[in-house]
Hints:
Elements: H1 2-37, E1 44-47, E2 52-59, E3 62-68, E4 71-76, E5 80-82
Antiparallel strand pairs: 1-2, 1-5, 2-3, 3-4
Amino acid sequence: MKDLLSLLPIIGIFLIFWLLVIRPASRRQKEMQSVQRSLEVGDDVITNSGIFGTIRSIDDDKIGLEVATGVVLTVARAAIVGLPRDDNDDAPVVGDADDSTDDSAVTDEADSTGEVDSTGEAEESRAPEQEK
C-alpha cells in the first residue's frame, strides 16, 4: 500500500503534463491536418513563414501560392498552417457615434531626414550629396 502511495505524485505529474502539453498539441496537429486536407484553389492561406497568399494550383504535396499579381510561389502543402483571420469584424464603422476624431491635432510630416519644423511641416532642406 505504501509503494502505491509513493507512485501517486508521479502519476499526478504525468496526468497534469498530458492535460497541459500533449492533449492541446495533438488537437492543434489534427486541426492543421484537416485544414491542409480541405485546401482548394482560390483559398486565402498563410504559411508557417508568415506569407499570405491565394492558392492557384494544387499538385499532390505542392501548392502554387499567388502572393502578388502574377507572382506564384511553389510551397509544400505542409507549409500551409491555416487560413488568415478576418479582423474586419472588430473595425469600427465610419461615422459611428464612438468615432472621436480631433481635427485640431497637427499631423507631423517628415522628409527623408526626419526633420519637422515647429509648424508640423517637413523642412525642404536636405543634406548635400557627397561626390565620389
